[in-house]
Amino acid sequence: MIHDQAESLRRKLEEASNTTIEQAKTISFVSGKGGVGKSNIAVNFSLELCKQGKKVLLVDLDIGMGNVEILLGLQAKRTIVNLMQEQLPIYDIMELGPNNLMFIAGGTGLSDIFSVDKQITNYFLDQYKKV
Questions:
Q1: Distance of CA 16 to CAs 8, 9, 24, 42, Å?
Q2: The pTM is what?
Q3: Dihedral (CA of 36, 91, 126, 112) sign
Q4: pLDDT of residue 42
């Protein structure tokens, strides 16, 4: 018998479809493997939501090889790393992209960020709640 890795996810989606969801707060695209298209899907999904009149903030949390800004054809002044290392307000690192898409760029070539302490993690979460 073949194990279906997505069975529990399908079951949760089916259960969720039986309830009324007023508004999605966070949608994430994750995978343990790089290069599978997470950023491409996130960018295109975000742009489509913007075209439908939704207010969207796309946050690239890939601090090693973030590429959302590249996919958008833009160059960000600041990244999520600036938020954490300099404790900047989240609004100071948000950038405007196509179709009124707001985004926060990830970082590149960073390894020391993986030892983020609890204070920095809490700061990020507090800032995220403000959006």
A1: 12, 10, 12, 21
A2: 0.73
A3: positive
A4: 95
